[in-house]
Amino acid sequence: MPDEPDPVGEPEAWTPLSERRVYDGYVRVRTDRYRLPDGGESDWDVIEIPDTVTVIAMTRDDRVVLFDQYRVGPRRVLGELPGGLIDPGEDAVAAGIRELREETGYLPAATFDAGAEWAAANVTRRRHTIVAAGCELVGEPEWGEHEHGRVRTIAAADLMRHLATGEISDGGTALRALHVFVRATLDDDVLRALQQRVRSLLAAPGPLEPPSPDAIDGFWRDAATLPPADLRPALDRALAPRPADDPIALYERASLHDYLGEEAAAVPLYRAALAAGLSGERVPAARIQLASSLRNVGDPSGAIAVLKDFPPDDPLAPAAQAFLALALLDDGKPAPALRTALHALAPTLPAYGRAVSSYADDVRAPRRIRAISVALVVKDGHVLAEEYPETARHGAFLRAPGGGIEVGESAADAMRRELREELGIEVEDVRRVAVTENIFDRAGASGHEIVSVFAVRSAALDALPLDAHLPVLDGDTRVGWHRLDGLDRDLPFHPAEAGDLARAVADGSL
Q1: For the chain, which has fewer Cβ within 10 Å, the N-terminal or C-terminal residue?
Q2: Whole-model pTM?
Q3: Using CA atoms, how far apart are residues 276 and 433, in angstroms rounded to an integer?
């Protein structure tokens, strides 16, 4: 046998001689000249990029949070783990938590710092990774100016397959971090529980073929082919691993009720799913489906309240706007309904989109006489009023709470319904004190209303402090107490004669 070569000693360090900046942009490139151990000299290009952090975010319901976004290198959308640049002076864990919240809306219950690795041999970047356990959705993403994407989750069982696809820029970094994580000594119970789960994922036998369809996805794929009587047992089988109060199980059962035309049964399940911490792409879908169900059971105001703050950057935002337009129409607000529908349509038009959007802002309700009911709620020299702020079209004003009377509905019942929809309260005493006529012209918009005015008593409103405000549930305004002696002096109080009537109710003359 030939002699084995002598062991090679530690390589000698190169001696830096000079550096020269050659590019300064999002990344910076410099050329370094080195003297090599053999005496020769050589130039090397070095890419300077700030350190980054990647977050392996696992939810309480055994899913992994992803952020799909377009990447200019591959020129395609990649299903990425959340993460980003570490700010100067920022700790890697703090940066990871911040990036997770900004990109996805999730926050963790506990974190583990899995260390860092060099991005490449000629790159200054260190790529840090943290493992985030017990993640929960706490709000909407807070994307930067040029940041767009989609937040979604995948089953934890599919994580290794996803990392192995190569369709992710930090798959190797994540695998290194997971191996560090499973070998760590941990004190936190949440992290220890996740550590056991990750160990099982890393040890799972079998090839890393593409993920098989989720059982729930399979149910919905086959739903159209199943007899209605077989749908509930089939969904029960798909949801078998999940407890009854699991947010995904609640959401899927609500969806099946919707599918079967049982909207009244779907509504409480949608609400329960959202309250239980439903996460990922199911949240916007649940809001839309809840709103649709509310509208179908005769509660368009409730539907409006669910959809009014829908994030405009969500991929389902156009659908949400369509359902909002339907709810507004059913709620007797045809002009806002048409404006909403046109604004949703405008971005899809290959031409004239800007014109349609501009004209949508000018849509006004058709000229007609409208029957409405309003409430006069007085307390200690004050009256409860809905507050409308100043806009480009009109100055600030106050209005007695209330709204339109629907066909077949008495004025008193309309009053009770409006206070329930707007403020979420029930009233004990509704007494008609007048019927007035309100003819107005504000900012070029004219109106004609026949107004049933009611003196209203409510224990809930009596308990409301004079300095408190309540949000209007189906709108963007709020209500609060205003001094009777300041009505129409400080701000106009509508409808006409409402101020005088409120003072008469307060002094007992009416």
Answers
A1: N
A2: 0.46
A3: 45
